[in-house]
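Summary for the steering committee. One of the milestones for this cycle was to obtain a three-dimensional model of the protein with zinc ion bound, which we needed before selecting residues for the alanine scan. The sequence and ligand used are listed below.
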Amino acid sequence: MAKKVSYKQLGLVNTRKMFAKAVKGGYAIPAFNFNTMEQMQAIVQAAVETKSPVIMQVSKGARKYANPTILRYMAQGAVEYAKELGCKKPQIVLHLDHGDSFETCKSCIDSGFSSVMIDGSSLPFKDNIKLTKKVVAYAHKHDVTVEAELGVLAGVEDEVAAEESHYTKPEEVIEFATKTGCDSLAISIGTSHGAYKFKPEQCTRDPKTGKLVPPPLAFDVLKAVEKKLPGFPIVLHGSSSVPQEHVDTINKFGGKLPDAVGIPEEQLRKAAKSAVCKINIDSDSRLAMTAAIRKHFAENPGHFDPRQYLSPAREAMKQLYIHKIVKVLGSNNKI
Ligand code: G3H
Ligand code: 13P
Ligand code: ZN
């Protein structure tokens, strides 16, 4: 593990001011997951070109795949790269996504993360409070901000009937936020992780395209949470829209993603204008990358230099990030 270092020495920022500005301004900060150099480059290029603040987030799986030390130095590299691209004061957060224990959060804070999520959403309410509070105490000593989660994101395996009961309970949020001291709160209003957010039976089908049309998010729950915690930063996980052009390209060139469906961008746009100030997107970047690589291989069967197929993949992700920033989240021109 890398030696103890503060994120401030690395040129990173925490989420505090960023979120306050976003809530006031009616937009959301993009939180893009990264595992590879190409994703990181595309995120930085997109953020600099659009003058957007950005959260680069690292999951437990990413840390295992790429190595925690490498990812932390990549984030430091991201700040320097943004400066090289002409951004005088990059607003980049290095965030732990779905931290599963105090120890993981501590290790990230000690190695230069500026923000951590402690995901106690699967724990009983009281245990979630206890764990989150412990992380907040350590994090705040280092001026690191903490995202917590209340309510469980539904998976496609869940029964439709069970999904409703996974929604965040608005009557719990005041006690949770007050007792834990967390800086932002991820809530469950019907989004879920991955490229299959809804079962076909939860959707209707567009008669023209044959594509699934997902049910709306529970904006009533979001509204009720906002009412309980006015101005408090709210986070949406599982917010990929699963762009059908990428799904179609993947399927056209040998992939198999039948009925992949995400959250319509119109609903994310609406959420971004509310107290939702951080929107998590991972799957869309995976889809853009995979579509570009499949297409490249189909059209260039003789290519075997990774730079040949990773360059269009990186460009596709960059265009996706720019689209999300400018057309969905509205975080452009905020630096
Ligand atoms: O919340 C999940 C993120 O999409 C990260 O996914 O655990 O496969 O890296 P991962
Ligand atoms: P998606 O799978 O919808 O991209 O969600 C990502 C996420 O919530 C990361 O924490
Ligand atoms: Zn998530």
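Key point for the committee: Residues 33, 97-98, 193-194, 237-240, 280-284 surround 1,3-dihydroxyacetonephosphate (ligand 2) (CB under 6 Å).
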